[in-house]
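>> received
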Amino acid sequence: MRTKACAILIAFWLTCNLFASAQTSQIVISSRWFHPRDSSDPESTLAVIDSIKPGRIDWIYYENDNILEEYRSRGLEFSLAINPQIADSSGFTTKKHRILDYKGETFVAPWMRKWKNKNPYWGCVNNPGFYSLFLERTLFLASKGPYAIMVDDALFNVQLKGRGGCFCQFCTNKFLSLFQLNSTVIDHLTKAVRKNSKDRTSTERSLVKRYEDFQFSSVVTFLSKWKKDVREHNPRMRFLTNNYNGSWNEIYKVFDGGIAELDSSKVTDETLDLLYATADSMGKSQLFSIATTSQKTHSRLVKYNLKHQRSLLLPWDIFIPGEPKRYYMGVSEMKSMVTQ
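>> returned
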């Protein structure tokens, strides 16, 4: 009996120390929306939190103060998310503040077209009305006490790369004014965008690139101003975004940290060393998740993060392209990875 009791105590001590080791890497979970969503939802955000005991919870969409109080009562820091689909005052993403493609159609991100989304339309960074909506919503979220604001899909207008960008009146007028161009340029631009890229003349390719570069710089300007305006009210606020594969282009550099979906092929020591070193050199924080249901792949990333004392985002509530449901790894499997 004494031998069995000692074995139990030793096992308990090892588990505690392994979790202590993991905590130096700070365990993070994400829960886009609080679970359970309804009586048929098998997932529970609080059950995962109470079992795993993460250091913080990132990338969550605000629903109500009661949920945030649950996080605070558990000593959790949290970041609140915002995206280009901020609704107008009417509660809907109406056309007046949104990205319009070269056909004049309101933009919906390609991966969202089949989603049952009440507000699918993306705001335009050159539209002053959208800026006001975005800033107002951010200040509301900041008033709820997050340590950071997470911008989901921070590329905004750049998502239309290859198709020129946004052709709303604010974008086209700003472009013409900025480069002192005649209004007929927009007709030439629209004609060029309608063609396949390989069929464009060199002049058309140059014009499309010029417009796309303008769209890119507009996003940087929008985000830089927004960050500055938010910090005037909240000087210590941090800003995060999903920088796919750990990219740090000029848009992502506006932010203080990234939470990136990482391609499975990049989960190697050599690649992770490089990606983390890049973030470190710029003073940026970096978390990675992987859009896969492969426990083996997730385990490789967790092992690396524990070994190098990097914060780790556990594979719970992950969007899998082409799949109807998000992926939620079981608590026992997640614990096994952290304590292996």
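>> The beta strands are 27-30, 56-60, 77-82, 148-151, 238-241, 257-261, 285-289, 312-313, 316-318, 327-328.
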